[in-house]
Structures are given as structure tokens and as C-alpha cells.
Amino acid sequence: MTAYLGSVWSCRYFWLSLVRMDLRNRYRGSVLGIGWSLAHPLAATVVICAVYYKLLKADVTEFVPFLLAGLACWNYLVGVTLSGCQCFVQAEPYIRQHALPLAIYPLRTTLGATVHLALALGVVIALTAALRGLHHPTALLALVPTMALLMLLGWSVGVLAGFVNTVFRDTHHLLEVTFQILFYLSAVIYPKELLYQNGLGWLAACNPLVAFQSLIRDPVLYGSWPSGSDIALTMAVAGLATTAAAVVLRYGSRHLIHYL
Amino acid sequence: MASILLEHVHLTFRVRQQYQITLKEYLLRGMFRNSRNPIREIHALRDVSLDLRPGDRLGVLGGNGAGKSTLLKLLAGIYEPSRGIRRVSGRISSLFELSLGFEMEASGRQNILYRGYLQGETPRSMRKKLDEIAAFSELGEFLDTPVRYYSAGMLVRLAFSIATAIEPEILLVDEVLSAGDLAFQEKARRRMREMMAKAQIIVVVSHDLDSLRRLCDRGLWLDQGQVRAEGPIDQVIAAYTSHVEARRAA
Predict the structure, then answer these.
(1) How far lies B28's CA from each of A173, A174, B19, B22, B34, in Å?
(2) Chain A hits for B119, Cβ within 8 Å
(3) Do B106 and A94 touch (CB under 8 A)?
């Protein structure tokens, strides 16, 4: 394990240069550039808030930061999974030329998504401060371990999605559909309390996607540290995913090239 | 000290006739039992043993599909043996499939950097080598242009310039002795000779038997994944050519 991590570290200049290149290429020739990664959740928020304000008379100063925080987390989780699906297929030319540790390719997609998450969180914090004020700014420190946990989860999910999609190319499309369904079940656009009030509390309690959003919403919106149950659930999920990814890398690496 | 040791190495590919299996095929066709796209086993290498030490120059020859390139990729660590032992120590440089792995939207100069990192270089070492690689490639101002505008020849020149800028302990070469146009080819041959003089172990795959005779002292003839002959390069080439002539006559 230590030797493997050492080999990942030894080629850090390679995967870091790929991350930089991905970020550059994504917005190459675009007038708005990296601003698009902010424009997308902002546009979605404006539309959804307009609808909620008109139909449900929701308080926009409460709802805008709430929704943006949820979308930031959601877009990250969807992004690392779907881009993770392609991580090995996209890296086929490198895999066929050099025997580098396969773990670096999901790391590439995860780091790219993390940059966008950090930008989105910056906007959420700024908007929250402007619209309703930050109650306990020290609670924002909780975002540091949350980001680390999300990166670990993102990398693990990327490894798993990448392996499965390399063998079954339908995986990417199946996951897209699955995420569409999960979007409405994961309290992204409504408070999780609504689920409890309507007898669907179990859905919030055992859906880790809800817990991951709470890790971001609690410190930013409410100035509180995330609850113990949310921390326990997310750590368990990230730990499980990391273990599964390590096992897949250990036993699947030698076979992956035959499916490319 | 560089070394390569293969002991009774087998490599088996399990492939499907069609490119990929779909989830539908996986779930609905009796979990492969009644598959219309069954798995076939291809024995790419069978019972190959090798022991190379510093100073060895091995030429690998054989017909198409004999397993030559597969052997090279196995030595590079890209394929792992299905059975047997592979032990390789030393910094490897592999010169094969050179045109692969370019980031088409990035400039030639950017590609030099990250392909250098891919070969284990650091920003510090690349700072020293960047100008030398740029000069060797003779691409001039095109180096600041995205490589998607390059011709195939320009891509090969750039790839060759980068790949041969490092000093490997083990050099694995697959048919890249004719990179670029005529003028560049002569320069490339000189560069290859310099590189080969510095490398401790060289394994060359080629159909050009004269090149193999010139570059190598040992030969390995592969046929359908099996070693047909191994020994001094002249003897192995003689055995291979007489086999080919006998088949042609028959």
C-alpha cells in the first residue's frame, strides 16, 4: 500500500499537469471562462427561486443560499461520478504506453471537480454573508474536513465508476438516469425536514446524499457543526467506498487494459 | 543495476469477438452461458523466459501477431503475466505507440512538459531539457500552436524528440527507427544510437533485420507467442529467414 501511494506521489507532476490542462481546456475559447462553472448553479437557482417565490411565497434570502449550497454539493457528487466513468477510457493512450498507477486517473477527475466545488462554495458563503449574515464563522472550519471527505469519496467513486464503465459502457447512461431520480429524493431543492414531515424520514436518514449536503449546509447556513449522525453516515460511506476502490485497484488493475 | 528476468511467463488475453459486452448481454443472456459474443482466450505469450543484464542488446523478431509488441509491453509493465514471474529493475523508457497520448488542444510546448512528466521528469529537469527538445524537433514557432493542427509527421517528430530526451537504464523500442521525413530520420537514427549507447539494456522489436543485426547482439524469435529460437543475433536471424523462405517455397 505504501509503495503504491509512493508511486502515485512520484508521478504527481504528470497528474497535476493533466488537472491544470483539463481546467484550461474546459473553458478554452470561452468568453466567460471558469465563470461558467458558477453561472450554471446560479442560473438554476434563479429559475427555481423564481418559481418557489411566485408559487410558494418562499423567502428568497433563506432559499437562495440553501439551494446554492445543495446544488454545489450535488453537482460535485454527480460530476465526480460521471466524469469518473470516463476516467480510464479517456486515459487509454497513457495506459497503453506507460505502467503508471491507475489511481491517478480518477484523481485527475476528482481534483478538477474539487476546484469547481471550492469556487461554488466561495459563492455560497459570499451570498449567505450578504443575504443573511454568517452566524458563527468559526463553524466554516468544518468545511475543511468535509472537503477532504468529499475528495476521498469522489476519488473512490471515480475508481469504481471508471472500472465498471470500462467493462459495461452502459454504466454512464444508467448513472445519469439514476441521478435524475435521486435528485428529487435527496433534498437538494427542499429541506430534508419535509421528508420527515411526510413520513419519509427513513429516506433522509439512510440516504448518504442528504447527509453530505448537511455537511455543507449546517456550517454555512446555520453556523453549526454537522450532526454526529451525518458525520458517522458520511464517514462510513466514504470509508466503504475507499475500501471497495482499493480492492478493485488491487485485483482489477491487471485486467483493466484488456477491456480498453 | 538494471536487469530483466522472465521465468516461464504466459500471457492470456480474454477477449470478445465484438468490441464490448453490453449490460443487456450480461444480464439477459444467461450470464454468458448462451452468449452470442462469447469470451475467447488468446495465448499471446507462452512459456517465455528471459534473463537480461547490463550490456545486453536483444532484438525480437517474428511474423505479424507473433507476440513481439506484447512482450515489449509486458516488459514495460503495461501487461502483467497471467502466469510466471516478471522481475524488472531499472528506469524504463518505452518507445512505442509514440503518436498516442497527445492532448490535442494543448500546444506543442505544453505537450513536451506533460509527456516529460509522464516519463518521470520533474519541473526542474524539464526546464533544462525543454529548449533542447524544442530544438531537436525543429518545429519552431509551431510549438506554440495546439497540436491538433500538426500533421502526422510533425506529431511523430515531437513525440520522438520528447521520448528520446531522457536517459533510461532500460530502453524498449518498437519500430520507431523511421520517425519523420528523410532529413529527420538521419538525425533520429543518430539520436537512437546515442541513446542506445547510454542505456544498460535494450530490447528492440523490428521487421528490419539489418537494423536488428546492427543494433543487437542477442536475438529472440517469437512465433505464435512461443520462443522458437534464442541466442546470438546472426544465428537467430538465419534460423528465422530460413523458416520464412521454407514457408514461402512450400
Answers:
(1) 18, 16, 18, 10, 9
(2) 98
(3) no
pLDDT at B29: 61
H/E segment holding residue B246: helix B233-249
* Per-residue pLDDT reduced to its tens digit, A85-109: 999 999 998 998 888 999 999 999 9
d(CA A170, nearest CA chain B) in Å: 6
Residue matched to cell numbers 506529431 = B155
- Separation of alpha carbons B146 and B109, rounded Å: 9
Q: Which three cell numbers stand for residue A117?
A: 466545488
Domain B3-90+206-249 of CATH type 3.40.50.300 = yes
Query: Which alpha helices (H) appear in B101-221, and where do they start and end?
Result: 108-118, 123-137, 152-163, 182-198, 209-215
The Cβ of residue B204 has, within 10 Å, a number of other Cβ atoms equal to 26
Q: Which residues of B touch A258 (CB under 8 A)?
A: 13-15
- Using one digit for the tens of pLDDT, what is the confidence trace for A110-154? 999 999 999 889 989 988 998 888 888 899 999 999 999 999 999
Shared fold status for B3-90+206-249 and B97-167+177-195: yes
Residue B86's contacts (CB-CB under 8 Å, 6 or more residues apart) are: B5, B6, B9, B74, B75, B77, B80
B162 HSE (CA, 13 A, CB side): 29
CA angle A83, A88, A93 (to 5 degrees): 125
Amino acid code (one letter) for B34: N
Q: What's A225's DSSP letter? A: P
- Pure H helices in A27-142: 36-56, 60-85, 87-90, 92-97, 104-131
Give the nearest chain B residue to A10 (CA atoms): B120
Using the Cβ of A9 and the Cβ atoms of chain B, whether some distance falls under 8 Å is answered with no
C-alpha cell at B46: 507462452
Domain boundaries, chain B: 3-90+206-249, 97-167+177-195
- Are the beta carbons of B160 and B98 closer than 8 angstroms? yes
Candidates A98, A100, A249: best to mutate against B (most CBs of B within 10 A) is A98
Name the residue type at position A129.
A
Domain ranges, ordered by start, for chain A: 33-259
The C-alpha cell of B40 is what?
475467447
C-beta separation of B100 from A93 below 8 A: yes
Determine whether the interchain pair B117/A169 forms a contact, defined as Cβ–Cβ distance below 8 Å: no
Instruction: Assign domain B97-167+177-195 one CATH number from 3.20.20.10, 3.40.50.11540, 3.40.640.10, 3.40.50.300.
Output: 3.40.50.300
